[in-house]
């Protein structure tokens, strides 16, 4: 007993010498400005609450485990969590743990709290804490309640809730080494939360290596950030990164970023879908009113219009216009660029002006995206066909949408460029152009420091291999090339990422997998995501139309290929686009999306081939 009495003050002194980390939630609806305005010492930003829209309990569980999955990948929905005075009742917690263990990933609820306790860091929840205390539960779903200490002055890590007005008082009581993390209370279904952090090393705008977007961090970054304050390494099961800060605290810019990220997905329908319907309707109207000549001009314009889309959407990402303005810029600007580029190419290329205009639009779209990605994706991440950071999956480089678009454009654009140029040996020329374009595309978009997109390392070379096979013919060696090129590209990506320290998704997931079992979980997760993507689109009108177009193309393939007669380069590019779409759909966790995008671009290119055929001079070849 005397030894215990003597050790108690020593333990208290050790706890008192540790940094104090206070985590508080503020009322729902609190804005970034609402948190940051309480003190100039608060670094501010927006925090992704989960993958898609998640329940309150899942948001806090993700913080506790430092990792997260789509709800659909868990074997069952999250059970109702009745948070008691000391945590979650054992029965409910057992179901939470079993659900996590059955998920195709290493998910450990309560990992943050348990890691702190194992390191002898006190962990407690204030009496005011409710669902948010899930952030600090231990591996058994338990958490101690704080006793005899004031919020912000408790030893170790404490969590509670407070009004926004109380944040300034907490900041004023921070000692050297202390940290305050304040974020908006999670709504019933949420995606983004306002967040602010104060303490040594924090000023200006929050950032995270996970997102590489200044002002945007993840819920899974909370755990590594707290552990770093105590000099503790994040366990391997945590996927988050330590939150930092840099630059000035521009609250208007942070609000604009949050607003733009929120608008990306809802605007895709009215800006892209509606405009595409309008363009198709105008094409049909032109064919009905002016016959074959009108159809030829309209189909050529439609094909070049969609090739200009990626470049034009980078412009609207920079301008951040209203919904109406963005619809007009895209709806009018893309066809205007198509008409202008075709008219400019007319005197030089004649009936091949459509191919020249398509090649120019493809080059500008791919090159502009590549420059932006190398620069850190400041515009691509805000583009309507960018990675969609608001979903909480990808934050920089290109997402699945752009991967599908660029992979198809590389193949089609190569075929169009050679068809327009009419070299002496178009077959050999298009094979070389497509191979070089795919190589450059992989080097720019695939490495983790830039694009972090392993799908690009598979899709782009597959498209080039399809071009080579169509241009130079089949044969056993070339068929082996089609199968081997994507594999070689992935191996090259791994080597590049290891050399430059890019931290690509492939390196983090596959190379860091803890044996064949964990690697199998990664493959299973991607397969299940791919299958889920088809289920999400299968009953949509766009998917039904795409399926009908594919069936019609298969049935009428001889007629379609006749439109490419005399233009082997364009024909090879068409086959390369098919290969890129098909292989990308099989290798990607959003296969249905790649099929939809590929079908749209291939249909437009087939229309361009028909248009060029209609206006070609008799006997011309290319």
Write the layout of secondary structure elements.
Blueprint: H1 2-17, E1 21-26, H2 32-36, E2 43-48, E3 54-55, H3 56-65, H4 90-101, H5 111-118, E4 123-125, E5 144-145, E6 157-161, H6 167-172, E7 179-184, E8 189-190, E9 192-199, E10 205-207, E11 216-218, H7 222-229, E12 244-246, H8 251-319, H9 323-349, H10 353-374, H11 400-421, H12 426-445, H13 454-472, H14 476-500, H15 505-511, H16 516-537, H17 541-555, H18 557-562, H19 568-587, H20 591-615
Parallel strand pairs: 1-6, 1-7, 2-11, 4-5, 4-6
Antiparallel strand pairs: 2-9, 3-8, 7-9, 10-12
Helix pairs in contact: 8-9, 8-10, 8-20, 9-10, 10-11, 11-12, 11-13, 11-19, 11-20, 12-13, 12-19, 13-14, 13-19, 17-20, 19-20
Summarize the structure.
With 622 residues, the protein is α/β, with parallel strands linked by helices.
């Amino acid at each position: 007993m005397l030894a215990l009495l003597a050790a108690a003050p020593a333990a208290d002194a050790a706890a008192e010498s540790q940094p104090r980390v206070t985590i508080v939630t503020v009322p729902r609806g609190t804005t970034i400005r609402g948190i940051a305005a309480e003190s100039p010492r608060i670094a501010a930003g927006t925090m992704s609450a989960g993958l898609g829209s998640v329940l309150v309990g899942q948001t806090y569980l993700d913080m506790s485990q430092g990792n997260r999955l789509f709800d659909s990948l868990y074997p069952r929905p999250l059970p109702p969590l009745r948070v008691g005075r000391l945590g979650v009742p054992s029965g409910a917690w057992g179901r939470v743990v079993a659900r996590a263990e059955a998920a195709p990933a290493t998910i450990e609820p309560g990992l943050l709290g348990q890691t702190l306790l194992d390191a002898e860091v006190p962990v407690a929840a204030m009496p005011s804490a409710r669902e948010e205390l899930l952030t600090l539960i231990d591996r058994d779903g338990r958490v101690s309640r704080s006793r005899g200490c004031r919020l912000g002055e408790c030893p170790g890590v404490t969590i509670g809730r407070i009004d926004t007005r109380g944040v300034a008082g907490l900041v004023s009581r921070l000692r050297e080494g202390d940290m305050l993390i304040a974020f908006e209370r999670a709504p019933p279904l949420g995606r983004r939360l306002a967040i602010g952090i104060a303490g040594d090393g924090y000023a200006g705008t929050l950032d995270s290596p996970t997102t590489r977007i200044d002002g945007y961090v993840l819920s899974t970054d909370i755990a590594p950030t707290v552990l770093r304050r105590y000099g503790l390494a994040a366990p391997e099961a945590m996927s988050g990164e330590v939150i930092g800060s840099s630059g000035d605290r521009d609250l208007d810019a942070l609000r604009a970023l949050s607003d733009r990220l929120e608008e990306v997905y809802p605007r895709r329908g009215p800006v892209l879908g509606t405009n595409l319907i309008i363009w198709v309707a105008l094409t049909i109207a032109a064919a009905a009113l002016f016959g074959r000549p009108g159809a030829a001009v309209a189909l050529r314009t439609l094909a070049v219009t969609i090739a200009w889309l990626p470049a034009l959407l980078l412009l609207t990402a920079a301008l951040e216009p209203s919904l109406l303005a963005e619809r007009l810029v895209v709806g009018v600007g893309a066809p205007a660029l198509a008409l202008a580029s075709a008219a400019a190419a007319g005197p030089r290329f004649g009936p091949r002006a459509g191919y020249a205009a398509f090649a120019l639009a493809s080059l500008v779209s791919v090159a502009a995206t590549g420059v932006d990605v190398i620069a850190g994706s400041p515009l691509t991440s805000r583009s309507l066909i960018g990675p969609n950071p608001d979903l909480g999956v990808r934050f920089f480089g290109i997402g699945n949408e752009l991967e599908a678009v660029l992979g198809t454009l590389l193949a089609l654009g190569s075929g169009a460029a050679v068809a327009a140029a009419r070299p002496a040996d178009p077959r050999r020329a298009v094979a070389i152009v497509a191979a070089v374009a795919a190589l450059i595309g992989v080097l720019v978009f695939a490495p983790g420091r830039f694009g972090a997109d392993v799908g690009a390392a598979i899709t782009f070379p597959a498209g080039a291999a399809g071009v080579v096979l169509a241009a130079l013919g089949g044969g056993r060696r070339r068929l082996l090339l089609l199968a081997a090129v994507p594999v070689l590209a992935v191996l090259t990506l791994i080597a590049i990422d290891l050399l430059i320290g890019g931290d690509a998704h492939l390196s983090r997931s596959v190379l860091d997998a803890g044996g064949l079992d964990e690697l199998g979980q990664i493959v299973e997760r991607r397969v299940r995501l791919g299958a889920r993507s088809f289920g999400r689109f299968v009953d949509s009108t766009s998917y039904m139309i795409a399926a009908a177009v594919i069936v019609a193309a298969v049935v009428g393939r001889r007629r379609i290929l006749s439109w490419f007669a005399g233009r082997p380069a364009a024909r090879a590019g068409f086959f390369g686009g098919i290969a890129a779409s098909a292989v990308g759909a099989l290798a990607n966790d959003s296969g249905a999306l790649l099929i939809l995008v590929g079908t749209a671009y291939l249909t437009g290119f087939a229309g361009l081939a028909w248009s060029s055929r209609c206006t070609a001079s008799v006997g011309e070849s290319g």
